[in-house]
């Protein structure tokens, strides 16, 4: 059996589960479920500062990289002062994910960034962020904390985003209060919210599969976006042949 290995960057957060309340490595289950449904193997990647200096040690074992959603990115990573509305950052996670995605792009490994992950992709390419949306923009993209908002996204015909999503107009689920500021080098905008023009998808045409989406495809079982990453990882030719279980 040969299935592509997709690493998913996870967070470290204070959590309660069962009788325990402690620090935990967290990842919403939808990410792993989507990878597995598409035929891949999901590997949870907690922050590890060793990977900042040597990201290749991990990437050589993977076929694809998925940058998941999570906390705001430290504005210092893109040369900005923190806005009063910026949330608490996780600098350790920022460092590791920027190193991983930079190395993955250098080696043309399939990469997908989701929400925060799209923002990491943009920063890795030299871009910046708008630290806080307000008014109608915020109401449309994150009306209530802890509740996903629904809206449409228009995708450029023939773009990687449109091919991955399976349509040029899709209904998506979002929960964010930040957005793309200055676009990173080599990136092109391939999706916008038709109601306000906010950038919803970016991609690197020079790479085999490098896509960022601001919405949450892991929250939509019908979405093909994460499945498209898994397919790209399988085509990359680095899939690991797993040994059969004993007996």
List keywords for this structure.
Rossmann fold; 9-stranded mixed beta sheet; alpha/beta; 247 residues
Explained architecture:
A 9-stranded mixed β-sheet has the order 5-2-6-7-14-13-12-9-10, sandwiched between helices. A two-stranded antiparallel ribbon has the order 1-15. Strands 3-4 form a two-stranded antiparallel sheet. It has helices spanning 29-37, 50-53, 56-59, 91-106, 116-124, 135-141, 160-165, 225-235, and strands spanning 2-3, 5-9, 11-17, 20-26, 41-45, 64-67, 111-114, 129-130, 149-155, 169-174, 179-180, 188-192, 199-203, 210-213, 240-241. Strand 12 (188-192) and strand 13 form a beta hairpin. The protein has a single domain, classed as Class I glutamine amidotransferase (GATase) domain (Rossmann fold), CATH 3.40.50.880. It is globular. Helix 1 (29-37) packs across helix 8 and helix 4 (91-106) packs across helix 5 (116-124). It is α/β, with parallel strands linked by helices.
